Amino acid sequence: MCRHLAYVGGPVALGELLVRPPHALLRQSWEPRTQDSGVVNADGFGVGWYAEGDPVPARYRRAGPIWGDLSFADLARVVRAGAFLGAVRGATFPGADGEAAAAPFTAGPWLFSHNGAVEGWPDSLTALAGALPAGELLRLEARSDSALLWALVLHRLRAGDAPGAALADTVREVAAAAPGSRLNLLLTDGDLIAATAWRNSLWYLPGPGRVAVASEPYDDDPRWREVPEHTLVTADRADVTLTPLKEPSA
Predict the structure, then answer these.
(1) Torsion angle of alpha carbons 39, 100, 171, 33, nearest 10°?
(2) Using H for helix, E for strand and C for coil, what is the string for the chain?
(3) Which domains are assigned to the chain?
(4) What average pLDDT does this structure show over 30-46?
(5) What is the rounded CA–CA span in Å between residue 127 and residue 3?
(6) Cα 13 from Cα 243, distance rounded (Å)
(7) Would you state the pLDDT for residue 53?
(8) Which GO terms fall under biological process for this protein (predicted)?
């Protein structure tokens, strides 16, 4: 299990949302409030952010817990960005991929994270993986369910799908192949955020002129809104749209 957060809006220090709030990702790494599977997220962390004038995000990832990285604490204090995605990881399955398995995953302008787990991994997704071009499988950063989910989403994005459609169709396809999976996906290109609530908690904090979408609130601001189960969220600095997602037919 994991916790993640995406933000677009006016420039802020990364630590203003990821470290300093009373229930920020830093604290969620050892004391999440709405996580119902696992109790600690100490198997890696990462953050990707967009520098002004550069559409390709920078990324900082580590294999250990966020609370043990003093270099990140320093970086988060001084780096400012108008868009970023951060995540802390609680590994569902054993693996030796280390830092490569930590979100966010990236390609071109995109940052991606997965909060959840694929039931029956890896056998349940053998057919879906086999439908991807061999080159895309060889470029997987890690041998994890999250990395394969990213490959499935990215394949759709490269085919021209809109961000929300790429997430929604991937979730429905994976849920049909692996019923019971937890598939909260989070995607941003620095302007738009798309996310799914699928068997895990998801919240958003609207404007003005900014939006945050997160696994759980990082503070007690009463403007936080919980996303209903089986919902696609698309958001930018001005607007948030919620679209119901149907479960696949049995």
Answers:
(1) 20
(2) CEEEEEEEEEEEEHHHHHCCCCCCHHHHCCCCCCCCCCCCCCCCEEEEECCCCCCCCEEEEECCCHHHCHHHHHHHHHCEEEEEEEEEECCCCCCCCHHHHCCCEEECCEEEEEEEECCCCCHHHHHHHHCCCHHHHHCCCCCCHHHHHHHHHHHHHHCCCCHHHHHHHHHHHHHHHCCCCEEEEEEECCCCEEEEECCCCCEEEECCCCEEEECCCCCCCCCCEECCCCEEEEECCCCEEEEECCCCCC
(3) 2-115+183-244 (3.60.20.10)
(4) 78
(5) 28
(6) 31
(7) 92
(8) ergothioneine biosynthetic process
Per the listing, tokens 């439908």 go with: 131
Which of the following is catalytic: 2, 185, 211, 227?
2
- The pLDDT score that the predictor gives to residue 89 is 86
**Amino acid in the structure at residue 174:** V
* pLDDT mean over 238-247: 95
- Res. 46 pLDDT band, cuts 50 70 90: very high
Q: Which comes out higher in pLDDT, residue 119 or 250? A: 119
Q: How far lies 98's CA from each of 22, 33, 37, 144, 194, in Å?
A: 28, 25, 21, 11, 26
Active site residue 99: no
**What is the rounded average pLDDT of the residues 21-25?**
96
Least confident of 122-131, 187-196, 223-232, 241-250: 241-250
Taking the C-alpha atoms of residue 152 and residue 183, their distance in angstroms, rounded to an integer, is 13
- b vs e for 48-72, b when ≥16 Cβ sit within 10 Å of the residue's Cβ? bbbeeeeeebebbbbeebbbeeeeb
